[in-house]
């Protein structure tokens, strides 16, 4: 099944999409920066002290990263020498909009990984590129966690030609347990949306080392690290951000995964939350207690991208493949992103996927719009290579906070 067909099939009668439409009238936002730039401190004057306290509790202002929704981060240790222990590592993988589009069937010697296409991102990921990349990230965490759990993992991608949702079969063989630095990074890797240290560059040797982690024929890394390359990538990302904000369908489908309320976060254990948004503690606290309009959200996201995330990046990167519609190549790209982010975590380098450009390219393609970002980005890439995932890296200025996760037991098929 082609990605277009897969997406079309999933979108018909799809619960996530309906949710998105229901939420259209509510505050909407975006993963990369909480869009609250329009809120000034003076706004607090309008909030009565008692009301603020109540909403502070309701919004979880006082309890960042705690509760059931974050318990999965403490459940991935090497002490569990069974296959379910590996699913505990899988659920901590990076994934687009934190939609966690995965399910696992577990036996003693095998884990089968399935796409949960009901958790698609609608117009934000119309060709399921990000869904496949997210699944690749989960597969990689299983492979990295296997030795620590006394297993070696052999991965077969897309093992069943009759079932395109069956994205991987991972066979496990007993080995002597060994814990690697990458394994240790599984529980400390977090997407860092804060500004990065403008005084520290990630050196060429580190970029080359990261490039060396691409180990399949079809995936490779392209860096944008010179001032001219960074300007070109940054300008296109900012323009893509504006294009998304101007696209009502993308705005609605983006908002469907946004969670502000403490109880909502604890109930869903997924989505984009305020704490890892890259905003200051003060703005985060205000955002949890005050409703934010769509216009404020979007203004804040654009401002954050333009004034902090893009200008403080040490370098931008793209994972490119030969065929952007090939599910196997997308899964490999996801495996590579997870491996890269774990390796950067070990080296104390921060990273944030910044995928506005490919999101617009897919949107143009699926909605039949005039090609704009497709040709513009192709001009920055090697011939016959297509970007599956784009990101920024740099040295941190502050600690990145965790996102919620559904625990392994909620995503295992019986
Ligand atoms: C395919 C893909 C695309 C993503 N795109 C973005 C993006 O454009 N902006 C962003 O801030 N984060 C992006 N992310 C990061 C996810 O939002 C993040 O992994 C998720 O919220 C879970 O948080 P964690 O990585 O800190 O565990 C992307 C991740 C993946 C795998």
Describe this structure in words.
With 414 residues, this protein is of the alpha+beta class. The protein has one domain: 3-Layer(aba) Sandwich (NADH Oxidase), CATH 3.40.109. The chain has 15 helices and 9 strands. The strands form 2 sheets. Strands 3-4-2-1-9 form a 5-stranded mixed beta sheet, covered by helices on one side. Strands 5-6-8-7 form a 4-stranded antiparallel beta sheet, with helices on both faces. β1 and β2 (110-115) form a beta hairpin. α8 runs antiparallel to α12 and α8 (227-245) crosses α14. The two termini are 26 Å apart. Flavin mononucleotide binds next to α5 and β7.
Topology:
Blueprint: H1 3-11, H2 15-22, H3 49-58, H4 83-90, E1 102-107, E2 110-115, H5 129-145, E3 151-157, E4 166-174, H6 181-185, H7 204-211, E5 220-224, H8 227-245, H9 248-255, H10 262-268, H11 281-289, H12 294-309, E6 315-321, H13 327-346, E7 350-353, H14 356-367, H15 373-378, E8 386-394, E9 412-413
Parallel strand pairs: 1-9
Antiparallel strand pairs: 1-2, 2-4, 3-4, 5-6, 6-8, 7-8
Helix pairs in contact: 4-5, 5-13, 8-12, 8-14
Bound molecules: flavin mononucleotide.
Flavin mononucleotide (FMN) binds at residues 31-32, 94-98, 130, 133-134, 137, 190-191, 193, 272, 276, 352-355, 389, 403.
Kindly summarize this structure in a few lines:
With 414 residues, the chain is of the alpha+beta class.
